[in-house]
């Protein structure tokens, strides 16, 4: 049984879909949900699924305390689902090809520092793009430059707003991320 940890900084709607997907799985289990925000709603979602939680600061992550916890819990895969800090290289190297992230755009467009959450959808709207989508990729030491595993797109119209774009992207994420993880682990 593979042991998966989810890292998230906010609401955790993707984390919830992933926990529900693996709730009765014989292949993998969500062994930990960890956040850098003690008040992140993802922690409440984890408690609903009886998944253990762990909180840490950027300083503690950079000092190796998150890696220590992942090793203690014998984690096989790390899933970034709305995690908003850069994973230090020591941590990415501890999980080579075993750390995956979801990005709310069609990389390589709209990636890199500053490109997260609503900032991404606002940039897509400002550019007048006729489509957007999601990218699921392996994680390396740089933001959003790891090997792309999966992409899915959705059309946009001039009537779309950053909020409606976000809703379309979330729908794609919730539909695909759990299945892609299932195929990876
Ligand atoms: N080493 C890596 N770490 C992370 C990656 C990655 O690919 N490699 N992906 C991100 C997730 N992400 C996009 O998918 C992303 C998240 C956050 C940022 C960003 O600019 N963050 C701000 C800080 C925001 C905050 O403190 O609330 C910043 O760095 O200034 C960019 C991309 C997760 N980690
Ligand atoms: N660049 C990273 C980034 O922007 N990640 C995005 O944060 C949201 C988290 O939503 P959730 O907390 O409801 O799962 C998701 O849309 C995810 O793609």
Automatic annotation (TrEMBL):
One MF term in the entry's GO annotations: phosphoribosylglycinamide formyltransferase activity
Known function: Catalyzes the transfer of a formyl group from 10-formyltetrahydrofolate to 5-phospho-ribosyl-glycinamide (GAR), producing 5-phospho-ribosyl-N-formylglycinamide (FGAR) and tetrahydrofolate.
Pathway(s) where this gene product acts: Purine metabolism; IMP biosynthesis via de novo pathway; N(2)-formyl-N(1)-(5-phospho-D-ribosyl)glycinamide from N(1)-(5-phospho-D-ribosyl)glycinamide (10-formyl THF route): step 1/1
Keyword terms of this UniProt record: Purine biosynthesis, Transferase
Binding site for (6R)-10-formyltetrahydrofolate: 58, 101
EC nos: 2.1.2.2
Keyword Ribonucleoprotein tagged: no
HAMAP family from the UniProt entry: PurN
Limits of the Formyl transferase N-terminal domain: 2-181
InterPro entries membership: Formyl_transf_N, Formyl_transf_N_sf, GART, GART_AS
Top class in the EC scheme: transferase
Residues bound to N(1)-(5-phospho-beta-D-ribosyl)glycinamide: 12-14
One Pfam assignment: Formyl_trans_N
Protein known as: Phosphoribosylglycinamide formyltransferase
Site for Raises pKa of active site His, residues: 144
Similarity section: Belongs to the GART family.
Active site per UniProt: 103
Catalytic activity: N(1)-(5-phospho-beta-D-ribosyl)glycinamide + (6R)-10-formyltetrahydrofolate = N(2)-formyl-N(1)-(5-phospho-beta-D-ribosyl)glycinamide + (6S)-5,6,7,8-tetrahydrofolate + H(+)
């Amino acid at each position: 049984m593979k042991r998966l940890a989810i890292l998230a900084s906010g609401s955790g709607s993707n984390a919830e879909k992933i926990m529900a997907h693996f709730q009765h799985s014989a292949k993998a289990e969500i062994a930990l949900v960890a956040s850098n925000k003690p008040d992140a709603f993802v922690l409440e979602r984890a408690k609903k699924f009886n998944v253990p939680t762990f909180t840490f600061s950027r300083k503690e992550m950079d000092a190796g305390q998150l890696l220590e916890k992942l090793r203690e819990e014998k984690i096989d895969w790390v899933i970034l689902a709305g995690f908003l800090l850069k994973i230090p290289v020591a941590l990415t190297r501890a999980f080579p090809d075993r750390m995956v992230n979801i990005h709310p755009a069609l990389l390589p467009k709209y990636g890199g520092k500053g490109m997260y959450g609503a900032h991404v959808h606002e940039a897509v709207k400002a550019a007048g793009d006729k489509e957007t989508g999601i990218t699921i990729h392996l994680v390396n030491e740089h933001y959003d430059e790891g090997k792309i595993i999966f992409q899915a797109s959705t059309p946009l119209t001039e009537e779309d707003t950053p909020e409606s774009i976000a809703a379309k992207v979330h729908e794609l994420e919730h539909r695909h991320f759990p299945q892609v993880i299932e195929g990876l682990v």
